[in-house]
Design a protein that fits this description.
By secondary structure, the chain is mainly β. About 15% of the residues lie in helices and about 60% in strands. The protein is built from 1 helix and 6 strands, in the order αββββββ. Strand 3 and strand 4 (about 50-55) form a beta hairpin. The longest helix has 13 residues, at about 1-15. It is elongated. It starts with a helix and ends with a strand. The mean pLDDT is about 90.
C-alpha cells in the first residue's frame, strides 16, 4: 500500500502546476461551473464544453449547456451538468 501512495505522489508531483480555480453551484435549471484561468474555449456545443487551462483541458458534459460569461480568462458554463473531466497535456 505504501508503494502505491509513493507512486501516486510521484505522479502528482510530476504534473505541471495548475493555475486555475473552479466553483460549481446549483442554480435554477441545473448547475453553474465557473472557471478562472481559462486560456481558450477549444470546443463547445449544448452537450459538451472543452476549456483549455494551463497544463490541462477541462471537459464539461451535460445537456442544455450555455456560456453565460467569457471574459478576463473566466468562463461560466450553465446547464444540466452531468460530468467534469480533466485531460492532462502530454508531458
Amino acid at each position: 500500500m505504501l508503494k502505491k501512495v509513493k507512486k501516486t505522489a510521484e505522479f502528482l508531483s510530476s504534473l505541471p502546476p495548475f493555475s486555475f480555480h473552479t466553483e460549481i453551484d446549483r442554480v435554477s435549471g441545473g448547475m453553474s461551473v465557473c472557471v478562472s484561468g481559462v486560456r481558450t474555449i477549444s470546443d463547445f456545443s449544448d452537450e459538451c464544453a472543452a476549456l483549455r487551462l494551463p497544463g490541462v483541458t477541462m471537459k464539461i458534459s451535460g445537456t442544455a449547456l450555455s456560456i453565460t460569461v467569457y471574459e478576463n480568462s473566466t468562463a461560466e458554463i450553465v446547464g444540466k451538468v452531468s460530468g467534469v473531466e480533466f485531460v492532462y497535456d502530454k508531458a
